[in-house]
Design a protein that fits this description.
Layout (H helix, E strand, L loop, with lengths): L9 E10 L6 E11 L4 E5 L6 H8 L7 E6 L2 E2 L5 H11 E5 L10 H10 L5 H14 L15 H13 L5 E5 L7 H16 L3 E5 L11 E6 L2 E7 L13 H16 L1
Parallel strand pairs: 3-8, 3-9, 6-7, 7-8
Antiparallel strand pairs: 1-2, 1-4, 4-5, 9-10
Helix pairs in contact: 3-4, 3-5, 5-6
The protein binds adenosine-5'-diphosphate and magnesium ion.
Length: about 260
């Protein structure tokens, strides 16, 4: 009967976030209670301005000016120094943004290796680690491309590789498919779905209700609070539907050349 109890990865109690002062004061988060277990894949939905990004930034320790409690892996975040929080962020949290946020003057491989600099890993090892993860993402052939030579879907896959290079336990994604077409969106979702199957905790904000089917739990927010919270069985796509990046690009090219003949 005894079952090892793993504490939740994230516990929020009466979390509030206030912006502005005086007449302009308002609460972007207005009493959020939430408990997230290791290995959940959460999709967060809700109208623009309801506090999704604010919540993700707080979870990712990008914003420490909060009211209420935030426990990450059993530790109360508020009691930790800024330096300690930065350390936890770089060790345990991977961020993916809607606008990819790649550094345009760095090659793909240097972008992916970047988070490792802050961990003091020597250059050669950084490049090896980045190269390995890019190969895992079928992006090996693009290592020395510049970001502007990639499609949106490819850029986001590089951004996910960069978020994962530190092997974080939590992946936070703020509308990761917001700038992508439907095909590229599903490729990104399958990538996240694979990470979920490997045991990672994923918290993703999305506007697209179709994409919530990949998640194990769907939370909707309204006016800075949680409105609905639903557990579900995520869809599992057959492996054969997966299209590795290199092949997709090649096929598009060969189609075009056929058409011009
Ligand atoms: N830096 C900021 N300063 C002032 N208000 C902000 C700031 N960031 C967000 N807000 C406000 O907080 C609310 C929630 O914003 P946000 O979390 O970005 O919503 P969502 O991501 O759901 O669209 C909005 O009313 C927004 O205007
Ligand atoms: Mg937002």
């Amino acid at each position: 009967m005894t079952k090892t109890h793993i504490p939740p990865v994230i516990v929020l109690k009466e979390l509030r976030k206030r912006f502005g002062v005086g007449d302009a004061e308002h609460y972007a988060l207005d009493g959020v209670d939430l408990s997230i277990e290791q290995g959940e894949f959460i999709a967060i939905m809700g109208p623009s301005g309801c506090g999704k990004t604010t919540l993700l930034n707080i979870l990712g320790l990008l914003d420490r000016d909060i009211e209420g409690d935030y426990e990450l892996n059993g530790r109360e975040i508020g009691s930790l120094s800024q330096r300690r929080q930065a350390r936890i962020r770089s060790d345990q949290i991977g961020f993916v943004f809607q606008s990819f946020n790649l550094i345009s003057r760095l090659t793909v491989i240097d972008n992916v290796a970047l988070p490792l600099i802050y961990k003091g890993i020597p250059k050669l090892k950084r490049i090896k680690m980045a190269s390995k993860i890019l190969h895992d993402f079928h992006l090996g052939e693009r290592e020395f491309y510049m970001p502007n030579q990639l499609s949106g879907g490819q850029m986001q896959r590089v951004a996910i590789a960069r978020a994962l290079v530190n092997e974080p336990s939590i992946i936070l994604a703020d509308e990761p498919t917001g700038n992508l077409d439907s095909h590229a969106s599903h490729i990104i979702m399958e990538e996240l779905s694979d990470l979920h199957k490997k045991g990672n905790t994923i918290i993703m904000v999305t506007h697209n209700p179709n994409l919530t089917t990949y998640a194990s739990r769907v939370i909707t927010m309204l006016d800075g609070r949680i409105d609905t919270d639903t557990f579900q069985l995520p869809v599992v796509k057959p492996v054969t539907e997966k299209k590795p990046l290199g092949k997709t690009t090649k096929r598009t090219k060969s189609k075009k050349s056929k058409g011009t003949k």
